[in-house]
């Protein structure tokens, strides 16, 4: 690895540059150190940074070019030498710049600020990466498979030998059905828990209940998935589905929905907690002063005032439910089906992304590429929900500020 | 005060203070019911937590105990070292199969010596009593101690998964009768051996140190490679996400001018925090594996994906920590002549450190439990080799704890469900320790201004 060696050597050069720069700054100041514009440490750091920065730029360019296969791997030795030469040149230039009037601190701060701006741009790079990779591969997919059949097809039957039906509607239906059940479970429980904790509970009860609900939030989704697979699924099958004659499958819409609902309880409750606490106390005091009971105050004053925020919270929870993967992979099953029976196995967009992209992938086949189209659909849906929800929540917050 | 005429129904009430009228009683009942709903909601949430944890712990506890058969094994020199010079390099040409024969003989002798007689016990019942992994274990032991060839050594061999399950209550005599892989006679033999003390069930360190094992031998499967893989990924996240996240938050919180570019960054970060994790997996597959050409199943790719995923969490909590440092600190530093950069790096950042650390640990905990994106970048592969030490090891194939759990749920043998729950317990212990550390840091160092 000549590149990592070049990096190590230029790091050593930078350290040397720091020492040299610092001692030269002392030397140029003579007896009176106050003549220096910047403190000697900054002079040292400026030399170190001018040594390191060109080397890192060269190395990054080299590795990007190698990844893009513009030049062969044998050329990395040359790139390493080039990086070393750049850092030596930087060292020389940095050292000659040092004198009492050199504004070393400003130079160092400029470079550090550049680094800070670069780091904060990574968020944009990530989003761009997501959007580009999804759109690029989805484009490939739609060259091989008609988009009308993808968006309006009622069948999902991928086949390895080709000629598959890849309609998104059964997956979308499963996703929405499971998310709906999850919200039916999570929203009332989460809301009531939040109301009780913010309006009724004594300090002691809150001290126990709040951390307990937060623990639910910290449990990884794979744990919920396993819980659905080995506990909830068989229980629902043995005590409800089979006696009622509605199905005999352990993985079902209801299993995944119930467990996902449990997962969303802390999410809904902490969001509602924030929203309820944002309603001004004066409104509560007014209602209580007129003689309404606490529950009447909540139902007729606090909740109507908090309604936009609550809607935003439900939308955020819905976007979580739609994008959730492990619970549905382990709890919902793999059969794409358009049906109403909640005890039947159905499947979701995320399950199919996982099943189409694990194992040996052939990135020319529509059966693999469809996963990117599914991912793009998922991304657009969750992004839309989030944008709307965040807009509502922000508007609502401004109302009471 | 009002001129509203009183209707005949709303006569001034003639009730006393001591008895409530019907309407008040109704309102109070509603009030009580409303409170009850709240209590029930909290009760359901707590019950769900308790049921979830107990079901996982009761299913997974078995993975930490394992049955071993301790028998004398005669290491036959002619089969194990045909050339007779005890050179491990030459002995390694002897296949695992021959060790299996040696072991079979040892088990038969041990059973015969113990004088246990069970009706209908076949010889395959006896030889299948031990795990298929045992011969590989014996081979490794012999290759490490070649001087023992020709002697008789006491050796602890793993017991077959079904027999092990019988002692943990997973397999019963009835289910054994229907099972092609075991038989009631075999279980009776195991019972008899247990009574004689040759078969013991004890704490299973191998579960934590062993790599994964194939479908046929759940008794040998462990989470060793998965723990290493997860640790490597956390290392990558720690070295990338923390500096980048802190730098980005410092810029956004302290320097960023109000313009369209910074607005765009802010909107981006809040949206990235809500992007489903599986989308990050797709990004990892398309960008890091297909475009850049990094290897599949490598912790470096997993670490990069998790870095991008945890960055928003770290940025949001770091910004909150920076915001909580009062402006008077900055003003004081600027007032005595520090530059803006000096005031932040010398004063604000150290004061915000406890908050930043807490947020970082919570972000890491979230990354440790994440599964979905790792499935897409090939971490589901069956990996038996331990990766090398970092940094080269970051490019070696490895597994990760949550992915190992998923992997085991996809196997046919129910013994793997027990292993999966056991792996979850290991994962939850790690998460618990991380959260405890976060709480400790917050309690110990957090300052209220």
TrEMBL record, chain A:
It is found in: Cell inner membrane; Cell membrane. Its main location: membrane. The chain crosses the membrane at residues 43-65, 77-95, 115-136, 168-195, 215-232, 244-268, 369-393. Keywords: Cell inner membrane, Cell membrane, Membrane, Phosphate transport, Transmembrane, Transmembrane helix, Transport. It is a multi-pass membrane protein. GO terms for biological process: phosphate ion transport. GO terms for cellular component: plasma membrane. Belongs to the binding-protein-dependent transport system permease family. CysTW subfamily. This is Phosphate transport system permease protein.
TrEMBL record, chain B:
It comes from the Bacteria. The chain crosses the membrane at residues 34-57, 231-252, 272-294, 300-322, 348-369, 420-441. Keywords: Cell membrane, Membrane, Transmembrane, Transmembrane helix, Transport. InterPro entries: DUF3333, MetI-like, MetI-like_sf, Phosphate_PstA. It is found in: Cell inner membrane; Cell membrane. One of its GO terms (cellular component) is plasma membrane. Residues 8-21 have a biased composition (Polar residues). Residues 227-438 form the ABC transmembrane type-1 domain. The gene is pstA. Belongs to the binding-protein-dependent transport system permease family. CysTW subfamily. This is Phosphate transport system permease protein PstA. Residues 1-25 are annotated as: Disordered. The lineage of its organism: Bacteria, Pseudomonadati, Pseudomonadota, Alphaproteobacteria, Rhodobacterales. GO terms for molecular function: phosphate transmembrane transporter activity. It comes from Paracoccus onubensis. One of its GO terms (biological process) is phosphate ion transmembrane transport. It is a multi-pass membrane protein. Its main location: membrane. Pfam families: BPD_transp_1, DUF3333.
């Amino acid at each position: 690895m000549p590149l990592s060696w070049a990096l190590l050597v230029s790091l050593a050069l930078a350290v040397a540059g720091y020492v040299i720069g610092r001692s030269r700054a002392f030397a140029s100041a003579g007896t009176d150190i106050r003549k220096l514009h910047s403190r000697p440490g900054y002079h040292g750091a400026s030399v170190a940074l001018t040594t390191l920065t060109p080397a890192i730029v060269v190395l990054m360019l080299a590795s990007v070019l190698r990844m893009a296969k513009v030049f062969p791997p044998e050329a990395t030795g040359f790139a390493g030498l080039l990086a070393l030469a750049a850092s030596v040149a930087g060292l020389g230039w940095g050292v000659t710049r040092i004198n009492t009037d050199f504004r070393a601190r400003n130079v160092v701060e400029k470079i550090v600020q550049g680094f800070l701006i670069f780091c904060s741009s990574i968020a944009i790079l990530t989003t761009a990466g997501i959007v580009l990779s999804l759109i690029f591969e989805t484009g490939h997919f739609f060259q091989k498979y008609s988009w009308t059949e993808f968006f309006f097809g009622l069948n999902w039957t991928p086949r390895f030998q080709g000629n598959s039906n890849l309609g998104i509607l059964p997956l979308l239906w499963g996703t929405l059905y499971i998310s709906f059940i999850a919200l039916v479970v999570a929203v009332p429980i989460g809301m009531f828990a939040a109301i009780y904790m913010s309006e009724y509970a004594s300090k002691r009860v809150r001290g126990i209940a709040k951390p307990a609900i937060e623990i639910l939030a910290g449990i990884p989704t794979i744990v919920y998935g396993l819980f659905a697979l080995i506990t909830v699924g068989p229980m629902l099958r043995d005590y409800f589905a089979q006696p009622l004659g509605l199905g005999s499958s352990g993985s079902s819409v209801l299993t995944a929905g119930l467990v996902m609902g449990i997962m969303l309880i802390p999410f809904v409750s902490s969001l509602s907690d924030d929203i309820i606490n944002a309603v001004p106390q004066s409104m509560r005091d007014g209602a209580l002063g007129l003689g309404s009971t606490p529950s009447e105050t909540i139902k007729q004053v606090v909740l109507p005032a908090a309604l936009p925020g609550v809607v935003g919270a439900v939308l955020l929870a819905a976007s979580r439910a739609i994008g959730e993967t492990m619970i549905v992979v382990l709890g919902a099953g793999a059969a794409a089906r358009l049906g109403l029976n909640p005890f039947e196995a159905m499947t979701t967009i995320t399950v199919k992304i996982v099943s189409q992209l694990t194992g040996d992938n052939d990135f020319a086949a529509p059966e693999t590429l469809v996963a990117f189209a599914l991912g793009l659909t998922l991304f657009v849906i969750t992004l839309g929900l989030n944008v709307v929800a965040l807009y509502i929540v922000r508007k609502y917050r401004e109302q009471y500020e | 005060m009002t001129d509203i005429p009183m209707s005949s129904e709303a006569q001034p009430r003639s009730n006393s203070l001591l008895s409530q009228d019907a309407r008040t009683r109704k309102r109070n009942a509603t009030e009580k019911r409303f409170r009850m709903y709240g209590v029930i909601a909290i009760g359901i949430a707590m019950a769900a937590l308790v049921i979830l944890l107990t079901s996982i712990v009761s299913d997974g506890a078995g993975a930490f105990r394992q049955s071993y058969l301790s028998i004398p094994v005669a290491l036959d020199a002619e089969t194990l070292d045909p050339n007779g010079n005890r050179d491990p390099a030459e002995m390694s040409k002897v296949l695992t199969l021959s060790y299996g024969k040696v072991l079979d003989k040892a088990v038969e002798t041990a059973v015969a010596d113990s004088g246990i007689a069970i009706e209908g016990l076949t010889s395959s019942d006896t030889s299948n009593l031990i795990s298929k992994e045992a011969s590989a274990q014996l081979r490794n032991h012999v290759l490490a101690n070649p001087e023992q060839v020709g002697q008789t050594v006491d050796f602890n061999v793993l017991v077959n998964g079904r027999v092990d399950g019988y002692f943990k209550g997973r397999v019963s005599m009835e289910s054994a009768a229907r099972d092609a892989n075991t038989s009631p006679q075999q279980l009776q033999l195991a019972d008899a051996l247990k009574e004689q003390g040759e078969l013991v069930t004890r704490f299973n360190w191998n579960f934590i140190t062993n790599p994964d094992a194939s479908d046929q031998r759940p008794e040998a499967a462990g989470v060793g490679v998965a723990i290493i893989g997860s640790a490597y990924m956390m290392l990558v996240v720690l070295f990338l996400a923390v500096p980048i996240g802190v730098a980005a938050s410092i810029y956004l919180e302290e320097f960023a001018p109000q313009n369209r570019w910074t607005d765009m960054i802010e909107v981006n970060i809040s949206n990235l925090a809500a992007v489903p994790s599986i989308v990050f997996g797709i990004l990892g597959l398309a960008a890091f594996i297909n475009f850049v050409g990094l290897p599949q199943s490598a912790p470096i790719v997993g670490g990069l994906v998790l870095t991008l995923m945890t960055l928003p969490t770290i940025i949001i909590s770091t910004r909150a920590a920076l915001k909580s440092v009062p402006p008077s600190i900055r003003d004081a530093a600027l007032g005595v002549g520090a530059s803006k950069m000096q005031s932040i790096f010398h004063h604000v950042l150290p004061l915000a450190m406890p908050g930043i650390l807490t947020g970082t640990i919570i972000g890491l905990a979230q990354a440790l439990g994440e599964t979905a994106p790792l499935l897409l970048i090939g971490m589901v592969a069956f990996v038996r080799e331990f990766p090398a030490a970092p940094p080269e090891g970051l490019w070696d194939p490895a597994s990760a704890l949550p992915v190992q759990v998923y992997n085991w749920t996809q196997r046919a043998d129910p013994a793997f469900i027990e292993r999966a729950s056991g792996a979850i317990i290991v994962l939850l212990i790690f998460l618990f320790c991380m959260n405890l550390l976060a709480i400790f840091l917050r309690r110990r160092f957090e300052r209220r201004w």
